[in-house]
Design brief:
This protein is about 25% helix and about 10% strand. The protein is an alpha+beta fold. The longest helix has 19 residues, at about 150-165.
Length: about 210
Amino acid sequence: MGTYTKIFLQFPPDKVFWNTSYQFFLYADPDERGYYPVFQSLDGDGFLPGSGIIFVTVVQSQSYVVEAQDDETTKAEVLAVLRDMFGNDTVPDPIAFMYPRWSLEPWTYGSYSNWPPGTTLEMHQNLRANVGRLYFAGEATSTEYFGFLHGAWYEGQAVGQEVAGMLANTSNAEGVHYDVLYGTTPEAEYNAANGWEVSSFLTYGFE
């Protein structure tokens, strides 16, 4: 599993200190890579104007550190970064603060699936294949978009269509399952039956 943590702060709407016409603000810590690097404003057109909400994203090693510590420690660290960016006298204390701790949730232990090196298409297909009447769908079962929200959407749609077809007796779809794993994925197996709807081998003239 990969870990990806969004930390939300809400400030008084009349004390918003960032330019709400911009969506993203970047911070480069001089000593530590990935230390509260990307802030995103939700107080803008198309999001939640007037909300005073901004959030910062940390990933992987920084996520594990943040999710293992208490709210007050994390809040103090984020505020120190914001005050370094915008000035000590500009950034007030937030009126609300929260973030999830996906790496500590017993039912997830992370934010999204992340294939380890060496995972083959056959291995992943065995993860997504149905077991009798039990079907699986989620971002983890998406071959092309694992780790992303739209991967879960596409997989849910595909499995829903399979199950609906079986209930209507118009389909008898059984997912491919590999009893023998060879440790590599032949080019011929990059196909729709294994969840691969597009070609990874198109060169578009750039051979």
